Hints:
The complex is a heterodimer of chains A (112) and B (111).
Chain A: E1 4-7, E2 10-14, E3 19-25, E4 32-38, E5 45-51, E6 56-59, E7 62-67, E8 72-77, E9 86-92, E10 101-102, E11 106-111
Parallel strand pairs in A: 2-11
Antiparallel strand pairs in A: 1-3, 3-8, 4-5, 4-9, 6-7, 7-8, 9-10, 9-11
Chain B: E1 4-7, E2 10-13, E3 19-25, E4 31-37, E5 43-49, E6 56-57, E7 64-68, E8 74-78, E9 87-94, E10 101-102, E11 106-110
Parallel strand pairs in B: 2-11
Antiparallel strand pairs in B: 1-3, 3-8, 4-5, 4-9, 5-6, 7-8, 9-10, 9-11
Amino acid sequence: xxxxxxxxxxxxxxxxxxxxxxxxxxxxxxxxxxxxxxxxxxxxxxxxxxxxxxxxxxxxxxxxxxxxxxxxxxxxxxxxxxxxxxxxxxxxxxxxxxxxxxxxxxxxxxxx
Amino acid sequence: xxxxxxxxxxxxxxxxxxxxxxxxxxxxxxxxxxxxxxxxxxxxxxxxxxxxxxxxxxxxxxxxxxxxxxxxxxxxxxxxxxxxxxxxxxxxxxxxxxxxxxxxxxxxxxx
Lengths: 112, 111
């Protein structure tokens, strides 16, 4: 079945610096790749997503890149701020209304 | 719109007891999901329902059953709770396999 691996498991960056989180997926038929942010004690919420017909997508300080050949995608956060501290999950799925598999998460801490 | 709602918010069970976690969504979504999240861990899919009338196993279905009661409601049942089922349970829904909307979670402790 589909497997999604996520690295690193923890990441600490200085406020203002950039953070990068990487994921790889196993099923080449996967075509939808969302990223979720989960603050402590809260529910996960979508922050950005990308489909397999696009190589890169940006939304203000957040960007996601996709390399279909290598089967990996990455989340980039620039100019990090204290409110970026959270756990981030990548995920992959391969068709509408199918199950979605999550990575194991990255705990991002922003140092003041 | 309330989005995705879950009841109860907290529950403590003794080993062997049974209970049903309720989930409802008012967004007319087709697909619904149940996940568990253990402390410091990721989201693991228990069961999902791609559409009304269908259910399928996820990664960790053992010890659980589900019912898609109608398009709005998807319940998760623990027939005989075990301490290993202590976790936070999230329900989620999606219209067409894109953004998943999560409920607030149910924190379950089995002693």
